[in-house]
Amino acid sequence: MVMTREGGRPWIGRALASGHAWRCVVLALVLGGLLGLLWGERNPSEAAQPSPCIVTATPQVLSLQHCQATLYAPTWSWAGLLAPDDPQQWRHERIHLDARIAAPLERVLSLGVPDARVIQVSRLRADGTAEPLLDLNHRSPFAQRPAPEAQLGLPVVILPGPQVLELRYHLHLGGRLQARLLSSSAFQTERLRADLLSGVMVGGLFALLGVVVVYHRVARQSAYLAYAGLVMAQLLLLLQIGGQAFALFWPDAPEWNQCAPAVLATWVIVCHALFAAGLFRLRERHRRLCMAHRGVLVLAALNLVPWGGVERLVAGSVLLAGVYAPLALGTAAVALRERLPGTRLYVLGLGALAVFSFGLFFLGIIGHNPLPQVDFFLYPKIGALLEIGFFAAALVDQVRLFQAQQAEQRQRRLADAQALVQAEADRLAAQARAEQKSLQLASAGHDIAQPLASLRMVAQVLRQTEGSAPVSQHLERVLDHTQALLRDLVERERREHRVHSQSVMVGDVLAELVLEHRAAAQAKGVVLRYVDSQVEILVSPLILGRVLRNLLSNALRYTPGGRVVLGVRRRDGGVELQVLDTGPGLAAAQVETLLRPFEQGRTGAAEGFGLGLFIVRSLCEQAGWVLRIRSRWGGGVVLRCGFHRASG
């Protein structure tokens, strides 16, 4: 079956756009969680008198949940969570085994967790006494583990016949152990597979981080930095949950190892809130939601204040997650209602995080794993990878929209520039035609003046003839009037020919430009000034303003700090306006490239289109001005534009 697109939207987009579809997804998640709880409650591991697990030499992996009997389970409460050293808050269980073997058998008791607040394992002898096998607590360094692996494992010798292993422990959030009996080779193979999976996930997260860093150069937004922080936080949290962080980063800091999950979870929530605020631009669009996200950041900061110990930190992280969850859902609902770009992918990421990292993982912690054949420590890895992947796709979706908008703006700006160039060309052409007509008229007047002079000579001859004085006098008056009209016509055309270009005071233009761009310069920490001048030039004020604004905008955009100076220098036959900056400069090979449309330098700013210098060159060529660029890499830029002077 081929999936088709309709109306420019993929089939999954149409499905997710339906409000009924989202209600069905939420309902399915709720029902799935309830069924998981109910199914977990029916887990036979809660039986008071379970059947013993049969141990033989053949099976390499044996699950012990069906023979793991609970003798004492404390009621879950905040008081119990905050007092793990109280033996009344420890869980007490026994594992009944029936070893049908002829000789002792070496096995590894995998406890299924990377660490515990307290864990004691012993073997009950026939006389009722206990043989201690393992005794670790939250102050035990990594070197005290009997097996140097990320997950807790205890090498044991299984004796022939019935026997009982006794467990007393206290896990984070009151969780339950999911013990298994493995051969040494099976245990090592399982750990290698887990480490390989962790390595693949780390590589995938770094690959997504690299993609977002590349896109960050296109559209510089705070969401990209928050995403980078989220990736790093999730990465460390996954390594901590899997036990690799304790083994690799802080093996001699067991108490910090107990704090690390809560600290990293708080970091994840902080980056999550910053990412949502940046992705949907809550500061600009929704002030109240923005303030709510800032409140979450304040709570996170308070949670990280070092007081109350590990238990207070864990409880604070749980409460922080409970506060942020409805806020994240509310933000997603608002974004869906307003159809903001990337919202559906953001919601899918939230859903993956809620289902795998919170729902299924929490069920596994408390001993109600809906899929017992799956290690519940795999759930947060799947949830984090899906969340990070969907969030990266949301950012890419926004970047694509941003690029489409930029392309449209570039085309519109180029069209405006071309229209301005064409208008200036038409104006100059009309001016040239008018000048040509004026010159033709003046030339005709000059040519007519010659026969008029001849007629005046004839009139002077007639004056000497007797009786023709009145006629000659009338003829001279007519000639005087006609020549006066011709002189006025030629003088008027001469004046109009001189004043088609306006005289502009350079100092006034520079002062106006500095005033316009002073706020932008201060925002970037750039000192903007000009050198006053009384020089006048004959130019079109419109074209001059467009050229200088483009040059000054470029100088400010590519100067992260330092100075930008406007000034004028006298040259032979004219003057030269200069824009000087202390930016990173240009390589010699870049100068000609940047004069072409849609070209930017290596330090191209996200808000630029690569049209500024192209427009400047086009306008200068159209107006007959000379544009020069002098620069070197790392030494700033000097932009020069030459004009004719109006006066000395």
Q: Give the beta-strand count.
A: 17
Shape: rod-shaped
Query: How far apart are the first and last residues' alpha carbons, in Å?
Result: 81 Å
Q: Give the helix tally.
A: 17
Strand content: 15-25%
Rg, Cα atoms, Å: 42 Å
Q: What is the structural class?
A: alpha+beta
Helical content class: 55-70%
Name the average pLDDT.
Answer: 77
Q: Specify the biggest β-sheet.
A: 6 strands, mixed
Low-confidence stretches: 1-47
Q: Can you characterise this structure?
A:
It is a single chain. With about 650 residues, the protein is α+β, with helices and mostly antiparallel strands. Helix content is about 55%, strand content about 15%. The strands form four sheets. Strands 1, 3, 4, 6, 7 and 9 form a six-stranded mixed beta sheet that branches. Strands 12-14-15-17-16 form a five-stranded mixed beta sheet. Helix 11 packs antiparallel against helix 12 (about 380-465).
What key phrases describe this protein's structure?
17 helices; 648 residues; 6-stranded mixed beta sheet; 5-stranded mixed beta sheet; alpha+beta; 56% helix; 17 strands
